[in-house]
Design a protein that fits this description.
Length: 170
Amino acid sequence: MKKIILLIVTAIFLTGCTSVKVSIKPDINITRIRRVAVLPFGPNGIVSDMFITELIGIGKFDVIERGQLDKVLGEYKLSLSGILDEKTRKELGRLLGVDAIFLGSAVVRKTPVFLAMQYSAVATTVYETAISVRLVDIETGSILISCSTSGEDQQKSIEKIVKKIKKAFQ
């Protein structure tokens, strides 16, 4: 009985924050964006790799291979920390031939959950993934699209974000 109640409480907690927040810069033609790079984000770049897989699946972008991105960054001694300054951003765009760059972050939060019952208590940990992705125009440095979500596993969160990006490009 305790396990059933715990599962119900956990399920309710996890499904509480599942929407994707999306902001799209008004008065721009984002359909001109076709060739993109995805900078690594998440633990060891795993989340960005999952994001790339979903992004390719929608068929809207030509995505630069991460190895090619790493090679260019290394050869030209460009750092990810300086990627948003105008000179570096434009140089990266020219070298890779991209229109825009996807940047992101991913955080896994651990939250202890305690369920007190009449004669006992149950404790567990609930894991919540928060993912944020931005599409930055190479030429202007403007954020064209910003999406974020939390509360689900990484794969579901990424799928929801990519669906919103696809909708923005229709």
